[in-house]
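Human: We require from you a standard protein entry with sequence in single-letter code and fold as tokens, and nothing else.

Assistant:
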Amino acid sequence: MTEWDVKKLRILRTLRDRGTVTATAEALLMTPSAVSQQLTNLAGQLGVTLLEAQGRRVRLTDAAHLVLRHAEAVFAQLERADAELTGYLRGEAGQVRVGAFSTAVPALVVPAVRLLAHEDRPGPEVRVHEAEAARAYELLTAGDVDLALSLAAHAPTARDPRFTVLPLLADPLDVALPVGHRLAGAPGLRLADLAGEPWIFGGSGPWSQITTAACEAAGFVPEQAHSASGWTAILAMVEAGMGVALVPRMASAFDPSHAGVAMRVLEADRPHRHVVAAVRRGAEQGPAVARVLAALRRVADTTVQQS
């Protein structure tokens, strides 16, 4: 029977994800020569060629991709086994490390922790790692977190065998206007009504993409007057009359300090950003992770009902 070495298979998977031997070595805290040696040994164990030279880089062969398709099922089964063993050893409490983007922490994670704290049985110990939405899957892949909250725009496809991705909520986007703006009290405000306004949003990353996509769907390309990624800075500039901005409901609910900002709900063509939870495939069956996911769903359902 062919010998399957899980450690070496993880190195091969990391090479597929990272693209180069050097990046793989950095991610796994190994030397490039050690990575190459381990993969050479794996190829010998399996009796197939796994890598081919492509200029100064290497590429995975068809045989390597075939091996990885089966390896992903092995990794998922090991996650399930680890989750069950952890549940057995620690009961349903255990520890769950949650990676979440900034607005998800006060809006979803903290209320979920409070729910768990008020249950009759001991709840899991939740440890929070704040990270940008785009980085959540890097942390999950590296094993630095057990559960990641991210945006659907950054989620892997349903065909990605490494993760189980679960939709949580559609977070409405409201328009932030200076209180003295001519449209601050206008009835039936539409996004298209703001086509000629100066806009404030990030220069790159998810929020830039979400803002431009929402405006383009409304029929215009927003003129970016100012670039900022933090909601406190964005709302401060709106309050000063420097422009308008799209703000997620989850963010505005936890930054109420700007009395000079009028938050307007778009009754028509209201854009949303979609929040998802992700775990390594198989880990969702672990008692502690399952309880945290259930608490997050309860908070998300309440948030949607209040929107």
The first strand starts at residue 51 and ends at 54. The chain has ten helices and eleven strands. The first helix runs from residue 6 to 18. The mean pLDDT is 87.
